[in-house]
Amino acid sequence: MMWRAFAPLARLLPAEAAHWAAVQTLRLNIGPKPDVPSMPLTVAGIRFDNPLGLAAGFDKNAECFSGATRLGFGHVEIGTVTPLPQPGNPRPRVFRLPVDQGVINRYGFNGNGMEHAARNLAAVNQRPAVLGVNVGANKTSADPIEDYHVAVARLATFADYVTLNISSPNTPGLRDLQADQLLQHVLLAGRSGLADSGKKIPLFLKMAPDLQTTEIRKIIACCVDHNVDGIIATNTTVARPEELSSPDADERGGLSGAPLFAMSTAILAEVAALAKGQLAVIGVGGVASGWQAYAKLLVGADLVQLYTGLAFNGLDLPASILSEMKLFMEFDGYGDVASASGQIPDAREAISHAFHLAQSAGLQVADPKLYW
């Protein structure tokens, strides 16, 4: 509980400064090292100690992934890493929505590039958890699709899986790569990058929440046709629910945190219904408690990720979530994560069930404001 007290202190800093401070804290291996329940599972041929991971966007330059695993995460996804260094968008570019427990960011893939990330990754001999590497295209690239080939070829040797990020709203034109022919070319670029690396590891795709069912169907079909191993649903949203009431709610960028939870879970349910059995499904968006992570499992996620929840709840959040997930699985009679996955495919029903389980367990949970 000591580390939860640091979250309010971090919020006294500007949002981007607080993010930098958290990365540096974990880089120095300062932070809790809790005992977490054993919840092993195998997804896309990879063994995970538990289903909870740190989403891309937190450790952009592969600076603190070892420290992050100490928090209890079963996997950490670094990035998004671009081939060349780039400064990202002008500051300020990160905005807290304290009333809504959300964040808007328009970072724009700021980072030190793939060579810097490669040096950091090469410096670590042993990793205590699964490592994913998330790659993207440079903003000014003459050939964005080739950027995916280049970044995958360079970084796959250090990774347990690679994710192609074509769904950030903060790089102009990037989300256009989710459509039809362009998506095929991106997936081929990722595959050729893996071939050039000489390493056979799973390839994932991260998709946006701002998609219609017909678009989701096409993306899933394309991924199946091109032997993609998993879908991460979802990235941040450009939508703004009317219920947002924080002062910076109209800022441009991708919205994450609590306001994204119900929307991303509904999209996740659609993805799982179409992809289950053909692709691994990773749920991310608005997870800040065990019951929210459990709801993602119930609609069909194989793994769950979080990021924004750390900013509001502190570094002991992963351990708390895993303990609660284990408790909810026992309440429902599931002996392992795979048994729980997909048991309530309707998003509203899954969210309601998980929330009422938390109440029944005597956890202090406020009635969720679901926004959508």
General description of the model:
The chain is built from 13 helices and 13 strands. By secondary structure, it is of the alpha/beta class. It has a single domain (2-360), classed as Aldolase class I (TIM Barrel, Alpha-Beta Barrel). The strands form three sheets. It has an eight-stranded parallel barrel, surrounded by six helices. It has a three-stranded antiparallel β-sheet with strand order 5-6-11, with no helix packed on it. α9 (290-299) links the parallel β12 and β13. The longest helix is centred in the middle third of the chain and has 18 residues, at 180-197. The radius of gyration is 19 Å and the shape is globular.
Evaluate the radius of gyration: 19 Å
The percent of residues in helical segments reads: 25-40%
Strand order of the largest sheet: 3-4-7-8-9-10-12-13
What is the fourth-level CATH superfamily?
Answer: Aldolase class I
Total domain count: 1
Furnish the topology, listing elements before pairings.
Blueprint: H1 6-10, H2 15-27, E1 41-43, E2 46-48, E3 52-54, H3 65-69, E4 75-81, E5 94-97, E6 102-105, H4 113-122, E7 130-135, H5 144-155, E8 161-165, H6 180-197, E9 203-207, H7 213-225, E10 230-233, E11 254-257, H8 261-275, E12 280-284, H9 290-299, E13 303-306, H10 308-313, H11 317-332, H12 337-340, H13 347-360
Parallel strand pairs: 3-4, 3-13, 4-7, 7-8, 8-9, 9-10, 10-12, 12-13
Antiparallel strand pairs: 1-2, 5-6, 6-11
